[in-house]
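User: Predict the structure for this protein chain, please.
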Amino acid sequence: MRLVVLAVLAIWGTTSGIAQSSNIRAWAMDQTDSYPVVLGTSEWVLVGTAFGENFEEDYSGKISLENLLLQSLLRISSCDRPKVAVYSGGDSSDIAGMKRVMNTFLTSGHITSFDLTTVSTSVPLHVSLYDLVQYDVVVLDPPTCKGPDWQFIITEDSQHALARYLENGGRIVASAYLFVYWVAYPSGEKALYNKDLSALLFDGARPDLEEFSPKAISKFYLGNDETFLTLDGAFRPTEPKDPLFHSFWKLVLPIKE
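Assistant: Here is the predicted structure, written as structure tokens:
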């Protein structure tokens, strides 16, 4: 049974379509404090940007985003030093970037262990509940999905295994790029996919493809007013343009009657 975290931020609860009784909190807002870009409960965290693709290069915003991932892992884990399963997509540099960051968490003593598995169109994510329950936290980190060959494919059985994993006390940290797919690259035509995961794992939360920010400003569980930067936030002080490969998407829930 999911634990209920009370009191959604009043300043955006009604305008974003998130019911006042929701168990979801805004863990971080956009740089203007207008809409959430990181949502979290006691069971999962949905982050409006990608991790691996922001970790592939050593840029000025990378450390802040590493901190966002680490804080998310530790905040929802039921133990002090979690065992982590990472399912990562993208090219070799994206995978290597994520692996380097997880190794940093391991050597610094923040986590007990991690296993990293690459997911692609040719090698979909295919796991059972038996596979998942070995880990305290699962990280789902798709690429920014630059065209059909970069989709983060999760089999139907695996989607239900992830849902059962949550029901059995598991925890998930995921990138909102699970839902963002470029139909045509690099023209910027985009759409939502993996739609079933929204209701199955994240209580209906998903990105709004019309709103984005290069920066996330932390709230509540992540501390107050800490700034997390994507690659766009580090290198481009103005709003990034489409195709927005390194931005924080606005996150929303279906409007409840």
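The chain has one domain: 10-252.
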